[in-house]
Design a protein that fits this description.
FeoA, alpha+beta, about 100 residues, FeoA_core_dom, Ferrous iron transport protein A
């Protein structure tokens, strides 16, 4: 698998703003201690790579892949995860 380049030096975004089919890397969490702990328990560790698989028709919830697990997050939870978005969509690494 090709190594993804992440945008450095740009303003980070929240996971809720990452488009379906894109990859992102966790920077940090916001919110209450219990929310941060739940996100850590689910595998949203700093520097972890996340694939945004799909969104519900109205944008909430969001299905993500982190490691080998698929996780579905509420929009309010995804709004608490600050990420760096990859420069290219995750599918671009498989194209010739």
């Amino acid at each position: 698998m090709a190594r993804q380049r992440f945008r450095g030096g740009q303003k980070p975004c929240m996971l809720k703003d990452v488009r379906s089919g894109c990859r992102a890397r966790v920077r940090c969490h916001h919110g209450t201690r219990s929310i941060r702990q739940r996100l850590l328990d689910l595998g949203f560790l700093p520097q972890a790579e996340i694939d945004v698989i799909r969104r519900a028709p109205l944008g909430d919830p969001i299905q993500c892949r982190i490691g080998s697990c698929c996780v579905v997050l509420r929009g309010s939870e995804a709004a608490q995860i600050e990420v760096d978005e990859a420069e290219t969509p995750r599918d671009a690494e498989h194209q010739p």
